[in-house]
Amino acid sequence: MHDLLNDLAQQIAGEFTFKLEDESLPLNPERVRHLSCIPNRDEAPDKFEAFYEVFNRLRTFLPLRSSPNSSRVPLTPIISNSLFPGSDDKRNSDDRRRNLLTETDDRKKTLFPESSRLRVLSLSPYHITNLPESIGNLKHLRYLDLSHTEIRSLHDRVCSLYNLETLKLSSCFQLTQLPQDMRNLTKLEHLDIKGSKVKEMPPQFGNLRSLQSLTTFVVSTNTSASRISELKKLSLLRGTLSIEGLQNVFQTADASVANLEGKKYLDELIFQWAPGTHLAHYETEVLDKLRPHEYLKKLRIRHFGGSKLPDWLGDAIFSQMVSLHLVDCENCSSLPPLGQLPCLQELYIVRMRRLRCVGSEFYGSNLKPFRSLEILQFETMPYWQEWLPSSNEGGFPSLQELTVYNCSKLAGNLPNHLPSLVKLHIIECRKLKFFHPNGRNQYSKLEHLHIRSSCCDLETFSLDCFTRLVKLKLQGCIFLRSIELQSEHEHLTFLRKLKIEDCPILEIFSGRGLLSLQKLKISGCSNLSSFGEAGLPTNLQSFCFEQCRRLPPRDAWGLQNMASLIFFEFDGVKYHEE
User: Fold this and answer.
1) Transmembrane ranges (predicted)?
2) Is the pLDDT of residue 56 over 90?
3) Which residue, of 132, 164, 198, is where some domain finishes?
């Protein structure tokens, strides 16, 4: 189907579109209007010479990168000289001799002369560090892509490209400043500076009223740069907008003037302060005035220094919000009623270091809080001690993935009603209890379980509770003594992979009932001395034992009963079965 569509596209494009590959040339170069190629370091210097006579009529020059990670290619003399005539006066004599397009009358041929009709230009695959003054000659240019280049600055003549609609500068890691007269590009609709080092927005940025996509707006301390209030005029913005440098909003009224609540087309907002520059009360006011419109789908807040998140954050009026990230809000000691967000599917709370208790304020007043939540992650909460359950059994009905990471003081149990949970990761939470007293069916749908350096009271791991488990990883459970199916009539028909590491007092691992287990790894279990009466699971395809010095002798492993065994490894030595 792909080949058919490609053939159809080529047929429609006809002679007007050509992709220059290897030594191929079009039958009628003079009819080509849209040219693309994949640059490489070994291409011939005269690769484009056949197109010289028709470049004045070219509309598109679109080099393509061979892969996202491909290295930049130096501009060949013909491209450099043709794109930017007269811009290389400082080139040494050797370079001039290598330029195959220098004519005997010293007048340089140009691929794109001043009267060029070029609409689309990409230099993204090339190694360039600056643009010459002659970039301003491309008066009809609509699309300019300099992304992933090492460009350090944009010449002010870029601001004379009055027809420019798209400017791509993503991942220009050397670029720190935009041209001061950028306000003149009144037709600009798309500006991508994501991943650049731009430190401020040029003055009167709000004049770009045609902007529909703006990846990043940077607030700075420079009084001549645009303040956040300039966003007020950009009413057509859509997609994702990241606002950085919010610690530099010195007048809280500016945040209100920005009128994010009126930008109905934005899907995602990212609010970002610089780390370690906190004026708690001031930042709380700023964030409160940055209230977005009620149809926002995704929100990320990073390095917020206030002591309290805004009341609007848990407002049920945000009926379409599906993703929320709260990262490095270190001074916040409580959470807003996020359980009231009816469509929230992903919630990440990371490094909220002053939070001590998650309780009723987290769930809100809904009878069924977090009714749509599928992914929940708590990470690095060093003072979090208690996770209280919802006042009713209706919380987290849709939760599929739960991660609790590096919460060393969290004690007690996880919520006991997680009917849809599929993946559970408990990492570096030593005081947390894993098995709930009344939670026999708590994990009836669990497929992936990872416990690492957690749940120190865990002595016996009963597999009976995990009838649908596919992958189990137990690491650093220092008081774990046994892992087994306690019921003689139970079978785990889904468990395929099992890894047990650094459980120093583990004595017994029984393979009874593990009929589907294919891969087994046990390491750092120096006290393991028995596989129980059933021995190792008989359907293993591979297993590995490392640093388990008390294992029974190999002839007691039952290798003769493992018809599916391909290989096994013992203390770094691999053995392949015939």
Assistant:
1) none
2) no
3) 198
Exposure class string for 250-259: b at 16+ Cβ within 10 A, else e: eebebbbebb
Locate the DSSP E strands across 212-355.
Answer: 213-214, 216-218, 239-244, 266-272, 298-302, 323-327, 346-350
User: pLDDT exceeding 70 applies to what percent of the chain?
Assistant: 81
Domain count, the chain: 2
Instruction: Write out pLDDT tens, residues 258-307.
Output: 999 999 999 999 999 999 877 888 899 999 999 999 999 999 999 999 99
The residues with which 47 forms a beta bridge, in sequence order, are none
How many other β-carbons are positioned within 10 Å of the β-carbon of residue 11? 8
Cα–Cα dist 387/390, whole Å: 10
**pLDDT category of residue 546 using cuts at 50, 70 and 90:** very high
Does residue 175 sit in helix, strand or coil?
Answer: coil
Contact 199, 227 (CB under 8 A): no
pLDDT tens track for 433-469:
887 655 556 788 999 999 999 998 899 898 888 889 9
pTM summary value: 0.88
The span from the CA of 530 to the CA of 538, in Å, is 16
CA dist 397 → 229, 290, 325, 344, 517 (Å) = 42, 31, 21, 12, 30
**3-class SS at 481?**
coil
Report if residue 203 sits inside a domain. no
Give the whole-angstrom CA distance, residue 457 versus residue 434. 9
Range of the domain at 505: 458-578
Strands 573-576 and 567-570, by their bridges, are antiparallel
| Average confidence score pLDDT of the chain | 85
* Among candidate residues 173, 198, 223, the one where a domain is terminated: 198
CATH number of the domain enclosing 138: 3.80.10.10
List the one residue out of 435, 441, 438 whose CA is nearest residue 461: 435
Per-residue pLDDT tens digits for 22-33: 556 655 666 677
Residue 354 domain-assigned (yes or no): no
Residue 206 lies in a domain: no
β strands within 250-389, DSSP E: 266-272, 298-302, 323-327, 346-350, 357-358, 375-379, 386-387
- Range with lowest mean pLDDT among 17-26, 138-147, 244-253, 538-547: 17-26
For the chain, give the longest Cα–Cα distance.
Answer: 96
Would 290 be classed as within a structural domain?
A: no
Q: Which of 226, 149, 246 is nearest to 195 (CA)?
A: 149
In whole angstroms, what is the distance from residue 515 CA to residue 467 CA? 12
